[in-house]
Amino acid sequence: MELFKRIAKSLFGSSRSSKSKSVKSSGSKTVKIRKTVRKKTAKKKSPPPKTKTSVKTKTKGKTKGKSTGRSGKTKRPVKKKTVKRQPAMVKEALALLPVGEVTHYFPHVQAAVIKVGRGEIRKGEVLSIRGHTTNLRQPADSMQIDHKPVQLARTGDEIGIRVKSRVRAGDKVYKV
Hints:
Blueprint: H1 2-12, E1 16-24, E2 29-38, E3 51-59, H2 88-96, E4 100-106, E5 111-116, E6 121-122, E7 126-130, E8 135-139, E9 143-145, E10 148-149, E11 152-153, E12 158-162, E13 172-175
Antiparallel strand pairs: 1-2, 2-3, 4-5, 4-13, 5-12, 6-11, 7-8, 7-13, 9-10, 9-12
């Protein structure tokens, strides 16, 4: 239960509080200092609170830009896209969720049909198939979609995988 609370807190609520100060210097620049302090959590193995300090500068007056020539308009700088990283505890929680579910088993060829529900499965990844009477761990060596070998299966695909032992419909498939 604690794991799900931490996940919800990381996804929906921020555990940081920010304070900012404005300091005017003698020139035409205004310097803004912002401190971000992490709140203490009730964990036993939590690191000490960290403090980050960043300095932002603003200038008064017009901004200089490159002219395009004919129209007289200035070019605006292109914003860089930043990639958001997932917090470590979110990655841990996603690893606990099943990637797919067994929908059928063919005993004469020892193959299972797996419906990929979340994420993707690549050839060679180690899969864990768990159910009421099943506990199997093996790499996905042979993967097929409509009798054609594939390297990657995405969400919504139904794939056939060769398995070592019997699995049952309804068994959950996890990545290891």
